[in-house]
């Protein structure tokens, strides 16, 4: 419709009001007595400007006093929030002793996830919590035993002390750590410890060192310096040349050097001695005081504990045959 002209005296009387003025009842209401203005309300509250409904400011807004929000705050959706400041300060206005951190709302799937500083224990925690965004003092983490979301699964995950204490398994390279066990996870690979210098490998404590053990059939490939315990022979065994195994004498299994004496009858060539259980190189044989050569003049059979005179004739009647045994075992 056409714009109506308002006389000067009428305009002045409306602009200079001594009583309330309403436009379409509550579209704009001027409360003259209380110096208040209401928009879409005919009863402005205890505010100089009372807006009943949403408001929009299309330019910057400066607030020189306090800002009080009694309802829900407005969340502005953004793909990535960028903060120019190099320091994000939390808990700046709270009382001393309050927890503070970052909470992730988990809609409909359980407790919220929280990364926060626990004032009570002076440490950071990553937990699932029954607390929500209304918490202003202390985060509840009664189910702190272990947070599933903090368990290390992928290579980029970090390991928490709490996870280790709960018996979790941690994989680092080709090694797996679980409780008091370190496992080499690469099949048939060596487990190497390198001190990268001249220092010694020192095992502390008052207990002992248990070597790998197994049967003869379970022997690994021999290599120079390897040592193990053979469960078939009940002896420690080593490889000194990288190809054969040698049993070690210990105080418990060592034997005295023993002398067996036999008398020749002119026909017998094999003599049984319970002390002959090794290769001919580890036995000394004399016939009438003449030392015999192993393998050439005699052989041994460890399974029958026998020594056999070779080279032709049997020891003559009355010959004194001396067998000295009990030396270190030969290669086995």
| Major β-sheet profile | 4 strands, mixed
Shape field:
rod-shaped
Question: What value does the average pLDDT take?
Answer: 82
How widely separated are the two ends?
119 Å
Low-pLDDT residue intervals, each spanning 5 or more residues: none
Kindly state the number of beta strands. 21
| Category by helix and strand content | mainly beta
Q: State the order of secondary-structure elements, H for helix, E for strand.
A: HEEEEEEEHEEEEEEEEEEEEEE
Using the CA coordinates, give the radius of gyration. 48 Å
How many individual helices? 2
The percent range for helix content is under 10%
Strand order of the largest sheet: 1-2-3-4
Strand residues, percent: 25-35%
Helix/strand layout:
Elements lengths: L7 H8 L5 E3 L4 E4 L4 E4 L9 E3 L48 E5 L7 E7 L4 E7 L31 H5 L3 E4 L2 E4 L2 E4 L28 E2 L12 E4 L4 E4 L7 E2 L10 E6 L6 E3 L11 E4 L2 E2 L6 E4 L4 E4 L10 E6 L7
How would you describe what is shown here?
Among the domains are: 33 residues, no CATH class; 38 residues, no CATH class; 35 residues, no CATH class; 68 residues, no CATH class. The strands form six sheets. It has a four-stranded mixed β-sheet, with no helix packed on it. Strands 11-12-13-14 form a four-stranded mixed β-sheet, with no helix packed on it. A four-stranded antiparallel β-sheet has the order 15-21-17-18, with no helix packed on it. The chain is built from two helices and 21 strands. Helices cover 4% and strands 26% of the residues. With 332 residues, the chain is mainly beta. A hairpin with a 4-residue loop joins strand 2 and strand 3. The radius of gyration is 48 Å and the shape is rod-shaped.
């Amino acid at each position: 419709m056409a714009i109506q002209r308002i006389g000067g005296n009428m305009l002045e009387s409306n602009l200079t009001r001594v009583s309330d003025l309403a436009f379409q009842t509550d579209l704009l209401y001027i409360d003259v007595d209380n110096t208040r203005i209401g928009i879409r309300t005919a009863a402005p509250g205890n505010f100089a400007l009372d807006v009943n409904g949403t408001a929009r400011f299309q330019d910057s807004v400066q607030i020189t006093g306090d800002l009080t929000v009694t309802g829900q705050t407005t969340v502005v959706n953004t793909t990535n929030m960028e903060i120019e400041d190099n320091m994000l300060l939390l808990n700046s206005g709270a009382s001393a002793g309050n927890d503070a951190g970052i909470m992730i709302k988990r809609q409909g799937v359980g407790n919220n996830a929280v990364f926060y500083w626990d004032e009570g224990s002076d440490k950071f925690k990553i937990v699932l919590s029954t607390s929500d965004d209304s918490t202003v003092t202390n985060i509840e983490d009664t189910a702190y035993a272990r947070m599933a979301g903090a368990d290390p699964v992928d290579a980029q995950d970090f390991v928490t002390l709490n996870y280790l204490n709960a018996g979790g398994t941690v994989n680092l390279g080709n090694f797996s750590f679980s409780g008091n066990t370190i496992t080499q996870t690469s099949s048939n690979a060596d487990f190497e410890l390198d001190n990268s210098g001249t220092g010694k490998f020192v095992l502390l404590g008052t207990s002992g060192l248990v070597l790998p053990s197994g049967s003869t059939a379970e022997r690994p490939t021999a290599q120079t310096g390897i040592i193990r315990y053979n469960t078939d022979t009940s002896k420690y065994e080593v490889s000194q040349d990288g190809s054969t195994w040698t049993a070690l004498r210990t105080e418990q299994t060592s034997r005295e050097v023993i002398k067996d004496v036999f008398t020749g009858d002119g026909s017998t060539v094999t003599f049984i001695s319970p002390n002959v259980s090794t290769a001919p190189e580890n036995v000394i044989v004399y016939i009438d005081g003449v030392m015999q050569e192993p393998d050439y003049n005699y052989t041994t059979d460890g399974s029958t504990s026998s020594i056999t005179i070779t080279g032709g004739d049997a020891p003559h009647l009355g010959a004194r045959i001396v067998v000295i045994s009990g030396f270190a075992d030969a290669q086995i």
